[in-house]
Specification:
With 184 residues, the chain is α+β, with helices and mostly antiparallel strands. The protein contains six helices and ten strands, in the order ββαββαββββαββααα.
């Protein structure tokens, strides 16, 4: 394959345009808040229509994409140039589906993924509320063992402290910056 079609992605040589089209691009808001990842085709559409501009944080890492009449350099990060209305996001209700999703379908006491129920960390009989900070996913076995006691009273430890879900954009931004710190 001619050298013209060799690209470097994360230090590895890429020789196929299909491999380039499978890459993703980080999209930043106008305020430089990392919002999401999009596929390279969507990034090209945003760049060509002028809705985004390239950001070159990594000094030249990205992909040249060729058409018969144009060579477009697509960087790993782009920034939106248009003002977008932020979607209204509400904290989801505390229900089985949302709690299981937050806890990644794992018991928060033993880590199993089988026969899951909801458990109130501080039992309702002891004044515990049905809130994001007090409800966790638990398997039937752990839930029955704990009963109407607190985890401390039952000698059990939570794998993760329960917390209210945050806006998906904020969650993505936190993850993005955590990953960037580990790369340096």
């Amino acid at each position: 394959m001619p050298e013209l079609y060799r690209y470097c992605i994360a230090g590895k040589a890429v020789t196929s345009m299909t491999q380039v089209l499978n890459q993703s691009v980080v999209v930043f808001s106008q305020n430089y808040l990392p919002m999401t990842r999009v596929n390279i085709k969507r990034a090209i559409a945003l760049l060509v229509t002028g809705k985004a501009e390239p950001l070159d944080f990594d000094n030249g890492s990205g992909w040249p994409v060729r058409s018969p009449s144009l060579v477009l350099y697509v960087p790993e990060q782009i920034r939106l140039t248009m003002a977008s209305q932020e979607r209204v996001w509400k904290v989801p209700p505390v229900n089985r589906r949302e709690v299981l999703k937050r806890d990644h379908h794992r018991c928060q006491y033993c880590g199993t993924t089988k026969r899951l129920t909801l458990d109130h960390v501080i039992p309702r009989s002891k004044g515990g509320k049905h809130s994001w900070d007090n409800v966790v996913t638990a398997c039937e076995r752990c839930n029955a063992f704990k009963g109407s006691r607190t985890p401390t009273e039952a000698g059990m430890k939570l794998l993760h402290q329960p917390k209210t879900p945050i806006h998906p954009t904020i969650a993505f931004a936190e993850q993005f910056w955590r990953e960037r710190q580990h790369e340096v």
